[in-house]
Write a structure and sequence with these properties.
This protein is mostly helical and 182 residues long. The chain has one domain. The protein is built from 7 helices and 2 strands; from the N terminus they run H-E-E-H-H-H-H-H-H. A hairpin with a 2-residue loop joins strand 1 and strand 2. Helix 1 packs antiparallel against helix 2 and helix 5 runs antiparallel to helix 6.
Length: 182
């Protein structure tokens, strides 16, 4: 592998990890209703990493999980850990089907499918807490499904749209042309 490509990927991963940790910490656009938390753009770093390479996506997801683990309640940190599933699935899909990023219709379908995977994983994490008694304040499964499931789908799709706008802007820049998928 080309040394320049490796350095570029490593640098991109480090910057995206920093962004992925910083956004949830300093963003004024955040709602935390434990176990739910909605911070605008908190998934953008992971989505951009998916558009670079699976290894970068995995590194960014692990890095952002560590940031969440150090700064948020355990259930929210474990929800962040579950992002590894959609990051791996999405990044490998884009690796073998990068043309998806050229079609708005395909982008929206991809975003929705990734959002569903994202939501299912986060609901599974929260159910683990719910059914073991770690979430005594929640009286119904429906509340968890709506707050986490539906909330994650909407939040994921909004963040993906932001990431796609950034992707398109970066794609036009000469220095990023070799880093992002075409």
């Amino acid at each position: 592998m080309d040394k320049r490509w490796t350095t570029l990927r490593l640098t991109a991963a480090a910057l995206l990890i920093a962004i992925g940790i910083l956004i949830p910490l300093v963003s004024p656009l955040k709602i935390v209703l434990e176990p739910a938390s909605y911070t605008l753009a908190s998934h953008v770093a992971i989505f951009l990493a998916m558009m670079i390479d699976p290894a970068v996506a995995i590194a960014v997801t692990v890095g952002t999980f560590i940031g969440f683990f150090l700064n948020f309640p355990l259930v929210i940190a474990l929800r962040a850990a579950s992002h590894i599933v959609f990051a791996v699935v999405g990044s490998y899909f884009l690796k073998y089907r990068p043309s998806v990023l050229k079609s708005l219709a395909q982008i929206h379908v991809f975003s929705f499918v990734i959002a569903l995977i994202h939501a299912v994983c986060e609901v599974a994490v929260v159910f683990g807490f719910y059914f073991t008694g770690g979430m005594a304040g929640y009286t119904s499964v429906q509340t968890v499904v709506l707050m986490i499931g539906l909330g994650s789908v909407v939040h994921s799709m909004v963040d993906f749209e932001i990431a796609y706008i950034v992707y398109k802007a970066l794609h036009r820049q000469k220095g990023f042309s070799g880093l992002l998928r075409r």
